[in-house]
């Protein structure tokens, strides 16, 4: 009797689950992928890596750790003769905007010319090259080192206002961001744009209606009758809560700090054919003057 009741109960549970064809529909796949990114953010190349690598969860991301097959020779061959691409999008990007003199004045407190390159290097200040240096706590060199970072300036456009992008490792982001906010005296702006949650709420799901028509597939529609197409939503990054602010501004200096993590993708190309791959992939847009 117990076995019979158990079998009936299992049949009821199995009937509720969707078949594989329904699960593999694009609308259901995207919703499932968004649900699985609640705790650990996926990179844009996650699906490709998940099929070929052992994945690990680090720094709030899901990253490929080691390949599942012997691909070391193939990678070495690509680096020496062709081109090898690495996805570094998990690195966090901090954007600083404001007057150039004020930016250089305060950033100079976190680095020293005795340690090598600084933010004032001429080749980097023009925006032509990317620089790298070690950051320290303000006025604490050579003690209290925060960690290595890379930076790039936006080329000058004739204005005194400049843009600076600083790329930091996710393990160092919070310490460096806290120090930058302190030296620039930045606080949260009055208007904070809160992004949408990854999954749709219960109320939104109730608003969707399943329309059945003979000879056609089921389509989800909203109140206005438009098709509901779920999109991949990257909410924040692995080092920040989705509902925390991501922009700060100083009322005294006018310097603004924005967290651009997972908004700017970053790839590294290694190999002699890297430049040719870029030239074939990226096409220059025609400039239209009004």
From TrEMBL:
It holds the Pfam family POP1_N. Residues 4-98 form the Pop1 N-terminal domain. This is POP1 protein. PANTHER family: RIBONUCLEASES P/MRP PROTEIN SUBUNIT POP1 (PTHR22731), RIBONUCLEASES P_MRP PROTEIN SUBUNIT POP1 (PTHR22731:SF3). InterPro entries: Pop1, Pop1_N. GO terms for cellular component: nucleolar ribonuclease P complex; ribonuclease MRP complex. One of its GO terms (biological process) is tRNA 5'-leader removal.
